[in-house]
Design goal:
It comes from Mesobacillus jeotgali. It is built from 1 helix and 5 strands; from the N terminus they run H-E-E-E-E-E. By secondary structure, it is mainly beta. It has a single domain, classed as SH3 type barrels.
């Protein structure tokens, strides 16, 4: 998990994560990590279109960004 977050930080590459929010809701987020701070990290969140602070302990899953291939005729 930390490898994908570090890669996102170093390469400005989006990753997708399943996250448990403070209100106990599970959300699917697409993010680019901006800064790592021990047990927390700051990332640009495409869902909220803003920088957000996330807790590493609340990440349920993290994966490389899914890319959809466009079909050409």
């Amino acid at each position: 998990m930390n490898n994908l977050l570090t890669r996102s930080l170093n390469e400005s590459q989006p990753v997708e994560m399943i996250y448990l929010a403070a209100n106990n809701q599970i959300t699917h987020r697409r993010i680019i990590v901006k800064e790592m701070r021990g047990t927390c990290f700051k990332a640009f969140c495409f869902l909220r279109n803003d920088d957000r602070l996330f807790k590493v302990e609340n990440i349920l899953s993290v994966m490389p960004e899914k890319r959809t291939l466009l079909k050409t005729s």
